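Lecture 7, part B: from sequences to assemblies.

Below are the input chains for today's worked example.
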Amino acid sequence: MAEGVKPRVKAPKKAAAGETVTLKTLISHKMESGQRKNKDGSIIPRSIINRFTCEFNGKSVIDVTLEPAISTNPYFEFEAIVPEAGEFKFTWYDDDGSVYEDAKPVEVA
Amino acid sequence: MKFKPMSAIAVLALSVPTLGMADADDDSLVINGEIEIVTKAPAPAHLEGALDEIMSGWHFRDDATQAMEMDDFDNPGMLFVENAMGVWETVDGSEGKSCASCHGDVAESMKGVKAVYPKWNEAAGEVRNLQMQFNDCRTNRMGAEAWGYDAGPAKDMEALIASVSRGMPVNVAIDGPAKAMWEKGKEMFYTRTGQLDLSCASCHEQNYGNMIRADHLSQGQINAFPVYRLKDTKLTTPQGRFKGCVRDTRAETYKPGSEDFLALELYVASRGNGLSVEGPSVRN
Amino acid sequence: MEFSRRDTLALGLGAAALTVLPFQVNAAAEDAIAAFTGGADVAEGGVNLTAPEIAENGNTVPVSVEAAGASEILLLATGNPTPGVATFKFGELAGSQSASTRIRLAGTQDVVAIAKMADGSFAKAASTVKVTIGGCGG
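Predicted structure of the full complex, as structure tokens:
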């Protein structure tokens, strides 16, 4: 696992059934592009988060493929429909095989 | 808003689209919808004749950069604050203590601290900035190793300590025993150095609001430090920034952590007396 | 500045090419678009791409894409060493076909968004972002 990688999610704790809510996610990650060289002139190998997904109760909200042009500490903001009470599940996939997860329960008032 | 003759020319040239930004804007900064930040204030008395109004560097950035500071979730500098929260609770050194062992809740115990640093320490008989104080705790109370100046954990902790004072007015003491060092810092601020023969004042007092190449010159205030710079995607402390500035005048720089830069940090901090503590901020 | 006859001609040709191809992309970007669309026609309109006209720093440029009714949106930076930025696939619980992120731009260039609509058609939007070089140590 890459060092210091930590996911953060901002999601509402409550929603009305069928409401559209805004989600924000950020994961601390250097997103080494594979374009940079180190001091001895050799290429620093690419090491990025290459995929991010968000699901609610097992159904897909968004599935993002990331390329090295996504900035350090990848940030996404998007919208989801909350049809019923349940849980958002967020998953980030690292080039090195690591998988980082976060989950946020949502109550329906 | 204050224009100097040169900036009037720059504004004329730039009012023909493409670069529509020239002087500080009039936006207002509220963080997380609740922390009101004073980003413009009357200049402190010691700046009489030099500046009428002091302004946070936030006013000199574009809307997209400004917006990143208005919500902690959008501010990548807060990632480092989170790191420091972990360090705050982590026991280190021979005494089996963490920061929290003595100081408890950081948001309570450290509230207001950043606003008055650098500060004269009577027991030690010296002016100290936050990083010096951290290392005093680490070596004398925790039995832990000192952090190198501007090492990762030291910068992170500086950001955490700043974050809990956001919105409080900077109020650095410049009289009493700190005065000698403050005078030294003031002299440095106005002394031209380097092949380019520039003082801090050349850019940040006489030309703020003007463009330097494609960028905006701010007043060089440090109320919003540490800053998360989009350019290098990490935190920069005041002394780290000073080093970059002095280097850009093509001078040999002082070392971050040196007494020279401490004097400059004290003086520059005092130029922001009246602005809010704002760090960690976001700049380009 | 003096222009030779040849320079002037070349400039004229360049201008003509720009007029005919307002939507100029490099070969790698064209390949990426072709891979996404399978060579299908791409209509203008129906996609909103929000990016700053001038980015203070190319390292972190905020961009948003939106295309009502899209199943996927491909985002490209046509002037980067590799043009790919991201592909957003919207699921059944997407609240809108929109997303915002922060991207790296190697210099002034066109950012392009191509949406694949639910009916299999494609639409695009492009936006030029000027990347400024900072004054101090930039």
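Note for the exam: Residues 6-108 of chain A form a domain with the Immunoglobulin-like fold (CATH 2.60.40.10). Keep this in mind when comparing with the next example.
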